[in-house]
Amino acid sequence: MTTNSSVQVSVLGLGAMGSVLAGALVKAGYATTVWNRSPKKADDLVAQGAEAASTAGDAVRASRLVIVCLLDHASVHEVLDPLSHDLAGRTLINVTTTSPAQSRELAAWAAHAGIAYLDGGIMAVPHMIGQPGSSILYSGSADVFHQHKPLLDLWGSSTYLGADAGLASLYDLALLAGMYVMFAGFMHGAAMVAPAGVTAGEFAALATPWLTAMTGGFQEFAAVIDGGDYAVEGQQSLHFSNLDDLLAASSDQGISTDVVAMVQRLIQRQIDAGHGEEGFARIIESIKQPG
Questions:
Q1: Across the strands, what pairs with 10?
Q2: Phi, psi of 258 (to 5 degrees)
Q3: Of 242, 227, 238, 218, nearest to 278 (Cα)?
Q4: For residue 113, how many other CB atoms are within 10 A of its CB?
Q5: Contact, 50 vs 42, CB < 8 A?
Q6: Using CA atoms, how far apart are residues 17 and 156, in angstroms rounded to an integer?
Q7: What is the pLDDT of residues 222-249, one digit of tens each?
Q8: Three-state SS for 265?
């Protein structure tokens, strides 16, 4: 019978995220070897029951499953390139933040070296790992994903997106795009009301339930986009979505209009192309085809 304690896993990289990932494995009873350029970062994990490796090579040779959570794509190659022979025949799960192209390059490098490869995109901050709301996206080897899913599920909800190793990163960055634009919109709103003596905290109390409710529109927009007909009934037209009043009010408050002007440009391009009576979802065409 296979138990967690009989499964050996090595974690390379003990930054804020890597340390939490490794800690979850130790807590679950996995025989965990850890390595970091700065050895002191392993002390707390060793106190919890992990084994510290003095070199990355020692960490790789200690386990059949190797998890990498380093600074960036270049760091992964810097650490692993000299160890390709040691990694041959082993499994590598890379949760370092990379671009889709970089993830695909690493998958090709791993295949050439005889390494089973799975790429991961972590949709969580360190304190969320192992808690409700933590989600990690994976792409690459389906065999690796399904074989190690019980381990992966310790960190959060695990979703497999397909054999293309770049998909996890692509989804990760696409979701972050939505998050950052939303955050920027909130900050624009907070800046608008600040001259009236409204604190950001007071504004957040109103913005949070409002924006949360508005996310329900994603599926409605998605249905229109996937249907390919931006003229279906029940939509807010692009003419009605004109943001000139919002831009003017922002200027009157003495703040930058950069955030809202970006959306207005997307709207105006579709209006100028003769689509003003069609729905707001049509701005995706402005995004798909940069001016």
A1: 33, 66
A2: -55, -45
A3: 238
A4: 19
A5: yes
A6: 13
A7: 999 999 999 999 999 999 999 999 999 9
A8: helix
In this structure, what token pair is assigned to residue 276?
Answer: 């003003």
Q: Which of 238, 241, 128, 255 is nearest to 187 (CA)?
A: 255
In whole angstroms, what is the distance from residue 67 CA to residue 84 CA? 14
The pair of structure tokens assigned to 233 is 């009934």
Considering just the CA atoms, what is the radius of gyration of the chain in Å? Answer: 24
Mean pLDDT of the chain: 96
Residue 225 host element (H or E): helix 217-227
Amino acid (one-letter) located at 179: M
The position carrying tokens 């979505």 is 241
In angstroms, the Cα distances linking 213 to 58, 203, 216, 217 are 51, 16, 6, 8
Give residue 1's pLDDT band: very low, low, confident or very high (50, 70, 90).
Answer: very low
DSSP E strand stretches across 124-234: 135-140, 157-160
